[in-house]
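Hi W.,

Here's what went into the run:
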Amino acid sequence: VINVVLTPAAASLPRVVLDASVAGIAVTTVFALTVVCTARLSDARRADRLATATLYGALTVIGLAACAVAVVYGVILTAHKT
Amino acid sequence: VIVVVTALAFDFTNGFHDTSNVVATQISTRAMPPRAAIAIASLLNFVGAFVSLKVAATIAKGFITTGSISTTIVFAGLIGAIVWNLATWYFGLPSSSSHALIGGLVGAMFAAQGAGAIDGNGLLTKLIIPAIVAPILAFAVGAVAITIIYRIVGSLRPGHVARSFRLGQIASSGLLALSHGTNDAQKTMGVITLALIAHGTIPAAGFHVPDWVVIASASAIALGTFTGGWRIIRTMGSRIIKMDPAQGFTAQTAGAAVILAASSAGYPLSTTHVISGGIMGVGAAKSVSAVKWGVAGNIVKAWILTLPAAAAIGALTFELSRAFGSGALGPVVIFATSTSLLAAAPGRRLPRRGHTPTDDTPPAEA
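Here's what came out:
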């Protein structure tokens, strides 16, 4: 049992759990917040509230950019699979 | 030649068997039309096969002693994997093609050389532990993530939320398809390379996958993916839970996060286990009773049975092959018999049996 626990694959397990949890929850949360921003942006535009619309537009772009970065990082990780 | 053709046949079954991992949630939430989802998954699987060759090396060297391998052992292992893949496809169960392949090879190796030729430590750390951890981790990440998402978007108009998450699903499934290509096409590359080593075509030292093997494997898995295993797509997409677009996006993103985190740490996982775990997690978080636990239980049973069943079929195939002598006659006879049986199968009407899906036609376009 000790030999198995000490193997590199088994020893890296806590790191895998942490990374997967943080990445999965962070990306989905950011995307959900972006969805909220797009809804607020739409509402603000309909109500002709330009400043609010601009703010939510900027937040939407930031959220989408963050998600895009996560996807690109995922592709890079896939390409450098060990 | 027979071993290479059999390996490519396995790759084809791997493609249509595991298509569901990538496209099932997309299709069931109507994020994309079925044919378009399958076509994109095929393309990304093809591209993914060229991205990295590390997994091929793991399959070729991680579980058995390559020095004592023979082409008959590789052939028997492939038959074990193909038979198990076809059996689970028939019942619409999303089992791991990778585990079937490794099980088949280990069983054939065990029959040929005994337990000494099998790397037990490699099996435990690279296959059994990941098989336990992967679905549990994806379940947990999916459950927590969807709970947070529902709290964030709960007050918004349902139509806007559904449209947005459908768009998100296109990106998350693309990442999954690419990841699947890098994992699964390479398993076939590893096996063909094993056969070439056993045949003496390439040296065992300095593992190298020939270019034609990469191209042939990528093409076979892409073709299999394009064919589409609709039975398993139905199981994953609608028989475990009735999914909404937010759940589909979350299951895929949680699955991709688990696969990529594991890959970056050199910890191979089954895509099938991860996505199934993610789907169950997002369903259970909404309502425990929303998950059809009977279907989930059948899937878990198939996971548990995959390694020993494929190993038993692999061992049996090896013994059958050995009965014809040590030459190529055994594999030739088994290959011809298997091909004849498969060629005859589509002409026979499959029995309908209650909850068992037998319809293998694609769903109507969304």
